[in-house]
Amino acid sequence: MQEFNVGERLRYMRQTAGLSQRQLAEASGVPHGQISMIETNRSSPSVASLRKILGGLNVTMSEFFEPDAPISQSVFFKPQDLRDLTTRLYSTLDDPRGKITLQQVGDARAHNLQILYERYEPGADTGAQMLEHVSHEGGVVIAGEVEVTVGDQVALLKAGDSYLFESTQPHRFRNIGDREAIVVSACTPPYL
What CA–CA distance (Å, rounded) separates 47 from 65? Predict the structure, then answer.
């Protein structure tokens, strides 16, 4: 896979939007230094941090990582048709530990529904900074185990277990096990 420069892409999108680093930080609710560290590739953002920053630009992760991907009117999708939302975050890593792979079915914005095929390698974590957004989401664990935190509730979900909650509650997903975990989830309106 060709190396993807997250910092360069973020700087380009911020400048295209006519925002300073400080303005983007304020719009995203993140520290100003975090934008600078990411843009200069001195820090790799977690999925949660990157999503929060992209929210300040009103851009989805799909638009960030695959800006030239054609809009599909397809009804059916093969694995290779799913839109990759995260792999490029890890393109420079040699070790897959801690990696999260999120693949989206079709055009989430067009349908106001985001369906994801999620893979969490051992040690993967959406980030210590909890996710919060205006949505509803649910999912089913297909393989492995995922620790899900929603507000002050924490559960270790195994294959066959599921979750459903209002996404304004702070939440986090972690694979604390020693094997890959797979989840199929849905979110409306789309968040990533």
Answer: 12
Domain boundaries along the sequence of the chain: 6-65, 79-188
Question: Side-chain half-sphere of 176: how many Cα atoms within 13 Å?
Answer: 12
Say which CATH superfamily domain 79-188 falls into. Jelly Rolls (2.60.120.10)
Token pair 């941090």 in the structure block, residue = 49
Q: Which two structure tokens, joined as six digits, stand for 3?
A: 């190396």
Tell me the two tokens of residue 153.
């509730």
pTM (whole model) above 0.90 = no
Q: Which amino acid is at 61?
A: M
**Vertex 5, ends 11 and 182: CA angle to 5°?**
115
Domain 6-65 belongs in CATH node 1.10.260.40: yes
Mean pLDDT of successive 10-residue segments in the chain (192 residues)?
77 91 91 90 82 86 72 84 75 61 88 93 88 92 98 98 97 95 95 76
What pairs with residue 154 in β-bridges? 149
